[in-house]
């Protein structure tokens, strides 16, 4: 109950944030050269006179005042009507929902990978602080952090796909293979290994650094001394008293990094030709399909808010001190 | 100050970072002397492997341009974008964070909603939108990177101000009758600055990575020699001439590593207690 | 009778670069069965390090380099880690100063107490649960079952410390080490916890090594006393002897520095009021969303008090009584919600913030924390000169005046060029005082100005304050939780509880013949008050 009340409150407080984003996006759209009609005309070859263009503008509500257009825009978004993509010839929402699963799967895989190994490596480094495992792990962390993900992806393709031929170089699954069930799952999994590593690498570096710092911080707290004074051995001190406390900043980080991870998927999906949201964003920029791009931004914001909602639930479960 | 310098110079990683960074700065400065020609002009036969031709120690790319020249000139672009975008982000972050943290109440609420809005939007996606709307010449890209990077420094500044404003020395300044502006900038800010300076290294590292990713996608300024551009170009010949992508990637890696190491060295030198652990 | 715990020539080395080579220098102490041995000393005396060394829980870089700790026939100074783990908690248990941080915030109280049994015994879960409830009842926690299910933050400070004691005594240890167990607690809670420790110790026959800085606590609880200074034991003996006939110079000076609880001879108090508080109110609203579910705390509810010119008004109370909030309302660091504060006829509460800034020099404040109240990045002289400079004094003139003020508060005028961290705690408090005096205020509000200081330094600062009050004709509002300090400094005293003044009047009257039950309880709780009175 406490947990739900808390998360509900946080969810409510993200409403103004979302509104702010939408207004911001809308104003950005106003600044962009040309409007939807110009884009449509350019798409069809530019063969429209001023009168029919004006008629089209009137039909789409583009001749209204800016506040009225904003109101229209908001009302459309509330109904999840994201407009029509002239490039794909489909409603934007349809295009987006076709692409969403690949991105979600990639993000989930990368997050799990980064969180799990970040946790393990962070704990190992903190237990042997300033010893050689710590030095090794911290150095690796720094290097991972400094590696541009797209470059890592390219080099991984060169090594694992071109030279060793262990893993596919791109795509979400073998097209036309007709795999079903478990076979298909396995196929998708092999396709996602390299993208997951590529996307997760920088987050692994961040998580391991935070986990190490957080472990060291918690190890210096008074209750750890109490636990030792009780006669617990070091392993149990860490497992029973330190770990859960040290996890709290890691959990917070998931929420903070959700947006960054989504942004990172743009590059990774482009490198590995994955049919996801990020690649769609890239394509719509290249093709100047602003309707789709803004739709993606809106859906991404919703996604980040959802992730944060889940993170809040999790945090409140881990920490009894949080009160609504 | 002396203790700080001694602390910094005594740490090997920090020194490696500093030397690496100085080397990259030297590359950027010497680019015009060592490679006076336009780095984007045709220099020789395309796709010559490194060490193959003494004229091109790092080889040529698929358009026959000198890779070494592009690496040296690219150092300028990366450092320029890194420094300017970081300066923008830190400045905006300090102002927003200081006002929010010091005043609290509705000012804090409003500014934090704005910060949250920026943090909720995936920063790379926002960058794409900005580039799509405003174009992709060098200055636009730099400002756009600064514009998507300020929320984290703002949060950090706010957190520092929140703790510092309740410290008794700040209350003492208020009882002396000091004005708010003076308390914020002359009393609190100098105390809040060290962690923000350390964090600037993170912002700079991210800024360099953001620009290279943008350039890799060919959405950054195509008329400058950027490392990311070169990686994107090399992608077309990745299967065989992988060195075209590999070399500029390494340059980015080393630059970001240098910036991170310097940042960490600053942090350790500023918080000697943590280093000992 | 052989001692339960015999510390012989124990030497503990500090890491290179510390201010002295040894934390403990050939410390020898015997703890006998069934007695409470108090180890007293000021900060840095090595008293806590002694406890850490016995438990072999020393900070990293600190190590035992000589001597022995004999317990049950074993030398703990050289015992291996596994042996120590068997002893810790089971045979020698420990209670710490700050019960909030000494308990794991994410685990339930019952779980944390039960862990003692899970580590050291093979009891079943149901047996453990039953034993935990017994223990909680034994330390007189109301509703033991509820407390066992609670998280640390859901209990009060006193209850948390009771839970810690329950945990320490779970396995009937031979020795209990209590490291300043009541220092973080309010005086009434402290009295209860001291009583509890003494009571349990008598019943169970546990030997207690009790570490404290407070001679009042020593007088209350000790059978024997050891006084430490700079890592050495300077005097040891039965409590009555050490307290009443101390032999060592240092012990004598420490005991002399403890302020007695009896009020000084009353000074004449002027009839002319300088500061008048009428019905001052302040509430805090926390949590809640869109006006729902918020908690309202009445920090100050309708305080009416008058400070006569040249007098000192003490405001005493426990934490959460609203005394600090009231002090901050007086200087408008906190905006009071209602009521008025008038200074020499000027209504302060009606002023705008800008007007208040211009009047700021008339009422100044001295803060509690000698470390937090000075900007670490400014030179000491500049800190003192800042106030006059804001109000229009030229910089050179203000800095020259700062040197004079340094002399006034007993600091070397040449040290104005130094930074705060180069001064000791007591010196910093003098800088804070000089800063406030630089504006020549009519009223000085001092918020716990000596609470963070060691007792000998505290005595010096209090002496200085009394001297300045006479010389400058200062009117003083003195906030303190320490009744002994209040007895020494104040002419008038107001006792606060839950945001209200429950009793006020001349200090001698209030302390000799308290009328309100709370004042009576407060005075009765002062540790070692018989000792304090005759001192």
UniProtKB/TrEMBL annotation, chain A:
Subcellular location: Cell membrane
Broad class of the protein's primary localization: membrane
Membrane-topology annotation of the record: Multi-pass membrane protein
Annotated keywords: Cell membrane, Membrane, Transmembrane, Transmembrane helix, Transport
Cited Pfam families: BPD_transp_1
Stretches that traverse the bilayer: 12-32, 102-124, 136-162, 188-208, 246-272, 292-315
Residue span, ABC transmembrane type-1 domain: 100-315
Family indicated by similarity: Belongs to the binding-protein-dependent transport system permease family.
Protein name: ABC transporter permease
Native species: Falsiroseomonas tokyonensis
From TrEMBL, chain B:
Residue stretches making up the ABC transmembrane type-1 domain: 75-263
Spans through the membrane: 14-35, 79-104, 124-148, 196-220, 240-267
Pfam families tied to this protein: BPD_transp_1, OppC_N
Entry keywords, A to Z: Membrane, Peptide transport, Protein transport, Transmembrane, Transmembrane helix, Transport
The keyword Membrane is annotated on this UniProt entry: yes
Record's subcellular location: Cell membrane
Principal place of residence: membrane
Keyword Cell inner membrane annotated: no
CDD domains: TM_PBP2 (cd06261)
Topology versus the membrane: Multi-pass membrane protein
UniProt similarity note: Belongs to the binding-protein-dependent transport system permease family.
Stated name of the protein: ABC transporter permease
From TrEMBL, chain C:
Keywords associated with the record: ATP-binding, Cell membrane, Membrane, Nucleotide-binding, Transport
SMART domains: AAA
Molecular functions (GO terms): ATP binding
Domain of life: Bacteria
Compartmental location: Cell inner membrane
Major location category of this protein: membrane
Domain ABC transporter residues, every copy: 5-255, 275-523
CDD domains: ABC_NikE_OppD_transporters (cd03257)
Keyword ATP-binding appears in the UniProt entry: yes
One Pfam family linked to the record: ABC_tran
Keyword Acyltransferase on entry: no
Topology term for the membrane: Peripheral membrane protein
Family statement drawn from the similarity comment of this UniProt entry: Belongs to the ABC transporter superfamily.
NCBIfam families attached to this UniProt entry: PRK10419.1 (NF007739), PRK11308.1 (NF008453)
Protein name, UniProt field: ABC transporter ATP-binding protein
């Amino acid at each position: 109950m406490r947990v739900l009340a808390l998360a509900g409150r946080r969810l409510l407080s993200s409403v103004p944030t979302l509104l702010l984003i939408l207004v911001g996006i809308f104003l950005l759209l106003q600044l962009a050269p040309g409007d939807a009609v110009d884009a449509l005309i350019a798409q069809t070859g530019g063969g429209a006179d001023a009168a029919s263009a004006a008629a089209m503008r009137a039909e789409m509500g583009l001749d209204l005042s800016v506040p009225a257009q904003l109101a229209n825009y908001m009302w459309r978004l509330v109904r999840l009507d994201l407009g029509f993509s002239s490039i794909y010839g489909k409603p934007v929402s349809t295009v987006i929902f076709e692409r969403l699963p690949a991105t979600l799967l990639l993000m989930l895989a990368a997050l799990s990978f980064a969180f799990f190994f970040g946790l393990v490596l962070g704990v190992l480094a903190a237990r042997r602080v300033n010893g050689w495992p710590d030095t090794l792990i911290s150095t690796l962390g720094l290097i991972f952090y400094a590696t541009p993900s797209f470059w890592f992806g390219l080099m991984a393709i060169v090594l694992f796909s071109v030279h060793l031929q262990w893993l596919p170089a791109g795509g979400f699954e073998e097209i036309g293979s007709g795999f079903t069930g478990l076979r298909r799952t396995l196929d998708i999994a092999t396709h996602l290994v390299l993208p997951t590593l590529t996307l997760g690498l920088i987050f692994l570096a961040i998580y391991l650094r935070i986990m190490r710092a957080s472990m060291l911080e918690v190890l210096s707290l008074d209750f750890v001394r109490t636990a030792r004074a009780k006669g617990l051995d070091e392993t149990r001190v860490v497992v029973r008293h330190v770990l859960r406390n040290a996890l709290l900043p890691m959990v917070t980080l998931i929420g903070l990094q959700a947006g960054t991870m989504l942004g990172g998927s743009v590059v990774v999906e482009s490198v590995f030709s994955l049919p996801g949201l990020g690649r769609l964003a890239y394509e719509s920029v290249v093709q100047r399909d602003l309707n789709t791009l803004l739709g993606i931004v809106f859906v991404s914001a919703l996604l980040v808010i959802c992730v944060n909602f889940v993170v809040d639930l999790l945090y409140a479960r881990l920490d009894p001190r949080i009160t609504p | 100050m002396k203790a700080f310098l001694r602390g910094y110079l005594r740490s090997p990683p920090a020194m490696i970072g500093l030397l690496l960074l100085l080397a990259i700065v030297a590359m950027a400065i010497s680019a015009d002397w060592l490679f006076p020609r336009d780095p984007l002009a045709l220099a020789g036969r395309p796709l010559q492997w490194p060490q193959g031709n003494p004229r091109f120690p790092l080889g040529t790319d698929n358009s026959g341009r000198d890779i070494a020249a592009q690496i040296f000139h690219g150092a300028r672009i990366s450092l320029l974008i890194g420094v300017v975008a970081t300066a923008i982000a830190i400045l905006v972050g300090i102002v927003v964070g200081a006002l929010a943290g010091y005043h609290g109440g509705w000012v804090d609420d409003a500014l934090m909603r704005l910060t949250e809005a920026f943090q909720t939007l995936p920063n790379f996606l926002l960058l794409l939108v900005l580039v799509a709307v405003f174009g992709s010449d060098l200055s636009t890209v730099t400002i756009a990177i600064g514009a998507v990077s300020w929320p984290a420094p703002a949060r950090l500044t706010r957190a520092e101000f929140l703790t510092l404003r309740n410290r008794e020395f700040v209350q003492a300044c208020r009882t002396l009758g000091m004005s708010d502006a003076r308390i914020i900038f002359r009393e609190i800010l100098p105390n809040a600055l060290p962690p923000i300076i350390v964090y600037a290294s993170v912002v700079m590292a991210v800024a360099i990575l953001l620009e290279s990713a943008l350039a890799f996608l060919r959405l950054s300024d195509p008329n400058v020699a950027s490392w990311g551009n070169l990686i994107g170009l090399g992608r077309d010949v990745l299967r065989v001439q992988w060195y075209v992508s590999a070399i500029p990637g390494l340059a980015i890696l080393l630059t970001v590593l240098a910036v991170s190491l310097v940042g960490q060295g600053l942090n350790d030198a500023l918080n000697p207690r943590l280093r000992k652990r | 009778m052989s001692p339960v715990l015999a510390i012989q020539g124990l030497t503990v080395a500090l890491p290179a670069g510390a201010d002295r080579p040894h934390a403990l220098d050939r410390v020898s102490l015997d703890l006998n069965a069934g007695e409470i041995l108090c180890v007293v000393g000021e900060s840095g005396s090595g008293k806590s390090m002694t406890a850490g060394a016995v438990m072999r829980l020393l900070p990293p870089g600190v190590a035992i380099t000589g001597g022995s700790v004999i317990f049950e026939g074993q030398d703990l100074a050289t015992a291996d880690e596994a042996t120590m783990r068997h002893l810790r908690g089971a045979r020698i248990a420990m209670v710490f100063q700050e019960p909030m941080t000494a308990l794991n915030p994410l685990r339930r109280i019952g779980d944390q107490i039960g862990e003692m049994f899970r580590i050291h015994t093979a009891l079943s879960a149901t047996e453990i649960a039953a034993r935990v409830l017994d223990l909680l009842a034994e330390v007189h926690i109301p509703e033991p079952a509820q407390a066992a299910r609670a998280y640390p933050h859901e209990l009060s400070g006193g209850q948390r410390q009771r839970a810690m004691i329950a945990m320490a005594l779970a396995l009937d240890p031979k020795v209990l080490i209590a490291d300043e167990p009541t220092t973080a607690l309010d005086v009434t809670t402290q009295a209860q916890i001291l009583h509890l420790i003494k009571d349990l110790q008598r019943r169970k026959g546990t030997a207690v090594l009790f570490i404290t800085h407070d001679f009042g606590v020593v007088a209350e609880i000790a059978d024997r006393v050891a006084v430490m200074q700079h890592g050495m034991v300077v005097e040891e003996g039965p409590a009555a002897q050490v307290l009443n006939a101390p032999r060592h110079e240092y012990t004598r000076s420490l005991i002399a520095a403890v302020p007695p609880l009896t009020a000084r001879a009353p000074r004449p108090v002027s009839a002319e009021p300088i500061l008048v508080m009428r019905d001052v109110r302040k509430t805090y609203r926390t949590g809640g969303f869109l006006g729902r579910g918020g908690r309202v705390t009445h920090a100050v509810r309708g305080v009416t008090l008058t400070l006569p010119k040249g007098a000192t008004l003490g405001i005493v109370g426990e934490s959460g009584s609203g005394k600090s909030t009231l002090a901050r309302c007086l200087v408008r660091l906190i905006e009071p919600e209602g009521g008025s504060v008038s200074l020499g006829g000027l209504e302060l509460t009606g002023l705008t913030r800008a007007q208040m800034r211009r009047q700021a020099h008339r009422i100044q404040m001295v803060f509690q924390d000698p470390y937090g109240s000075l900007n670490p990045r400014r030179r000491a002289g500049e800190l003192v000169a800042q106030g006059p400079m804001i109000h229009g004094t030229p910089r050179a003139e203000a800095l020259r005046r700062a040197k004079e003020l340094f002399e006034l508060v007993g600091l070397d005028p040449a040290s104005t060029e130094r930074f705060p961290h180069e001064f000791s705690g007591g010196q910093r408090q003098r800088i804070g005082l000089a800063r406030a005096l630089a504006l020549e205020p009519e009223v000085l509000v001092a918020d716990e100005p000596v609470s963070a200081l060691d007792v000998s330094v505290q005595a010096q600062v209090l002496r200085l304050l009394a001297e300045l009050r006479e010389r400058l004709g200062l009117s003083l509002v003195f906030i303190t939780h320490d009744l002994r300090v209040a007895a020494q400094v104040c002419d008038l005293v107001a006792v606060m509880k839950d945001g209200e003044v429950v009793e006020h009047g001349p200090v001698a009257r209030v302390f000799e013949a308290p009328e309100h039950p709370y004042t009576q309880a407060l005075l009765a709780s002062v540790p070692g008050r018989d000792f304090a009175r005759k001192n």
